[in-house]
Amino acid sequence: MVHAHGTTAPRIRLKDFVVVTKPGIVVGNVCATIGGFLLASKNGVNITALVGVAIGTLLVIAASCVVNNYLDRTIDRKMSRTHKRPSATGTLPFRVAMLYAAALYVVGFTLLLWLTNVPTAAIGFLGALFYTLVYGYAKRHTHHGTLIGSLPGATPPLAGYVAASGVLDQGAWLVFAAMVAWQMPHFYAIGIRRLEDYKAAGVPILPAVKSLGRTVWEMRIYGIGFVIICYLLAHWGYAGFMFGFGTITLGLYWLQAMFSPNWRTDTEKTAKTVFVRSLHVLLGFCFFMAMSHVLL
Question: Could you tell me if 233 and 172 are in contact, meaning their C-beta atoms sit under 8 angstroms apart?
Fold first, then answer.
């Protein structure tokens, strides 16, 4: 297509529809959803509900990421990490992207309502609403945006748990709290590594408006919180001994990097170590949740 001023409009590629959903985030959250479901499946696995919550959550998260990308496109254009996203470059037009997101939402919520239960669909709805609107606003106006964003980010394993159990019991809230606690050091590590990007975009993340020292201590507190919550999940019988042993071991391995004395002398390398280890912790957390009734 050629515009009136003579320039050729960028051609939409299939890859753009994938990139704009933030597939890394989607995959990580679906793993957490499945883990939460299997953790709560004490009386056997309902395969239909598992498929429904996994695919339904995948589609709802993907749709929310599309919307978030387009709400953030002016910010993304100012950041080296995100300036090539289809939403920032305009490769994928706004109208096409919104129709795409709407279709993902419709199919995703239909699967959640049809194959799981109303509470699970409600959790998905609240998570999507909070992520796209509340977090979208907060990240531009307060350094508490990371914490606010961690709340919808913790809904996938909660949805998985409720899809299997049908109840919001203490175990469900502990899984939710563990996911909140995991996200904070993970995203603070990204913020420290990409600090200049966030400053250029005018996003008031904690290390930009406070200090490195304050950020590192918050990371440590949340990291310790994650370890304690994992212990409680095992101690109170929601998960087995191997879950507790595995997640606590991984959590201590993560905390060792957070308590490194090298934050001031080698900030980039230390933040990268915390970030990489956070991915190991997430994978382990999901694995041990999924295997909690096998690895007793």
Answer: no
Task: Give the pLDDT of residue 31.
Answer: 97
Q: Which residues contact 213 (CB under 8 A, 6 or more apart)?
A: 263
* Residue pLDDT, tens place only, 141-156: 999 999 999 999 999 9
What radius of gyration, in Å, describes the C-alpha atoms of the chain? 20
91's tokens: 């490769």
Q: How many Cα atoms sit within 13 Å of 295 on the Cβ side?
A: 17
- 25-40 pLDDT, tens digit per residue, is 999 999 999 999 999 9
pLDDT at 8: 52
Q: What is the DSSP string of the chain?
A: -B-TTSPBPPPP-HHHHHHTT-HHHHHHHHHHHHHHHHHH-TT---HHHHHHHHHHHHHHHHHHHHHHHHHTHHHHTT-TTTTTSHHHHTSS-HHHHHHHHHHHHHHHHHHHHHHS-HHHHHHHHHHHHIIIIIIHHHHHH-TTHHHHHHHHHTHHHHHHHHHHHSS--HHHHHHHHHHHHHHHHHHHHHHHHTHHHHHHHT---HHHHS-HHHHHHHHHHHHHHHHHHHHHHHHTTSS-HHHHHHHHHHHHHHHHHHT-TTTTTSHHHHHHHHHHHHHHHHHHHHHHHHTTTT--
Contact by Cβ (8 Å): 128, 64: yes
Residues 6 or more apart whose CB falls under 8 angstroms from that of 24 comprise none
